């Protein structure tokens, strides 16, 4: 038996419900918006459908709006991230520059400190050299045994007052108690009573010669003591074989009596103005 069907124009199967189609369109547009291609694909989707519905009827406009918002959010987030990266880079660059500047300042401070230390050392060494030179000159300087005095009796003067018949030294005018000084640097080899010389001091000078200071009222040094030019060794007086207070001064080439030399010539040879 043959099947029969109603007469009339038959319709093709209807499409998916509108809600289903709109949901699919929204999902597609969202995907396209997230991938950045919604603008290129949205235009064809706006064409009219077979059943006469427009893009507005299917909700496509809403999908495009949502996709734009997502794109704006992505762009804003990217801009925020880029700004944060730029700020971090600027901060890192500033910190690097600060470290570089700090290192430069530290190096400059170190250089200045080293230069100052070197200069101070050079100045200190120069002062030390000058002090040593001044001390060397002072120790090699000779002075008068009585400051501001003069020779009252010359060397080798003849008189019966001296056992040798002549004066073996010179006499410097000096009242009792006048300070008597070593004429140069040396070591005391005798300090005490010297017979006709009374209280006397004998000094071995650094150049190997000897000087003697007689008729002292008091002695201010002891044997073995080192003395320097101008150092006080006693006070003048009139002890021993004398006719009045004065200082008897002798210069000798050895500690032995009879090795005397002209005291004035001796002092002048060492730069003393007499």
From TrEMBL:
InterPro entries: Cell_wall_metabolism_enzyme, Dup_hybrid_motif, M23ase_b-sheet_dom
Residue stretches making up the M23ase beta-sheet core domain: 166-261
Residues covered by region (Disordered): 1-20, 108-135
Pfam families noted in UniProt: Peptidase_M23 (PF01551)
Protein name (database record): M23 family metallopeptidase
Record organism: Streptomyces cuspidosporus
Phylogenetic placement of the source organism: Bacteria, Bacillati, Actinomycetota, Actinomycetes, Kitasatosporales
């Amino acid at each position: 038996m043959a099947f029969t069907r109603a007469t009339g124009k038959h319709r093709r199967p209807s499409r998916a419900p509108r809600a289903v189609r709109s949901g699919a369109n929204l999902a597609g547009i969202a995907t396209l918006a997230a991938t950045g291609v919604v603008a290129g694909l949205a235009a064809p989707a706006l064409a009219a459908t077979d059943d006469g519905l427009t893009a507005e009827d299917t909700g496509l406009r809403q999908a495009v709006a949502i996709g734009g918002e997502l794109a704006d959010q992505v762009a804003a987030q990217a801009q925020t991230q880029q700004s944060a990266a730029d700020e971090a880079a600027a901060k890192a660059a500033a910190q690097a520059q600060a470290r570089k500047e700090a290192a430069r300042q530290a190096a400059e401070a170190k250089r200045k400190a080293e230069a100052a230390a070197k200069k101070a050392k050079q100045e200190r060494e120069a002062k030390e050299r000058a002090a040593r030179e001044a001390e060397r000159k002072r120790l090699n300087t000779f002075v008068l045994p009585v400051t501001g005095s003069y020779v009252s009796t010359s060397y080798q003067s003849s008189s019966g007052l001296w056992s040798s018949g002549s004066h073996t030294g010179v006499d410097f005018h000096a009242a009792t108690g006048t300070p008597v000084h070593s004429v140069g640097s040396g070591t005391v080899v005798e300090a005490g009573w010297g017979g006709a010389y009374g209280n006397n001091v004998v000094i071995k000078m650094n150049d190997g010669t000897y000087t003697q200071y007689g008729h002292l009222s008091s002695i201010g040094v002891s044997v073995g003591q080192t003395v320097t030019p101008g150092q006080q060794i006693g006070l003048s007086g009139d002890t021993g074989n004398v006719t009045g207070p004065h200082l008897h001064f002798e210069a000798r080439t050895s500690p032995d009596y009879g090795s005397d030399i002209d005291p004035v010539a001796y002092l002048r040879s060492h730069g003393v103005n007499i």
